[in-house]
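Collaborator request, handled under Task 6.
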Amino acid sequence: KLRAPIELENLLPYNLEYRIYDKDTDQNWRSYLRKGGVMPVHSVELGHLILLNIQVQDTGHSPIHHFYCSF
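Structure tokens returned to the collaborator:
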């Protein structure tokens, strides 16, 4: 079975916007993920430094929360 190198799954009770940044190639990808949704990410290479920025939407709190992680 062929699978994407990375799959993002939103287990939060909120929708979110995310940005994936490949530091090795200086490329950005942005998208939106609904609560409970899964998004396959085919556009990355696992040997590269990949950063993830998440903006959680509609939490009732201000400011919007930002999370950073690397794979």
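The cover message to the collaborator said: "The mean pLDDT is 83. The radius of gyration is 13 Å. Please let us know whether this matches your experimental observations."
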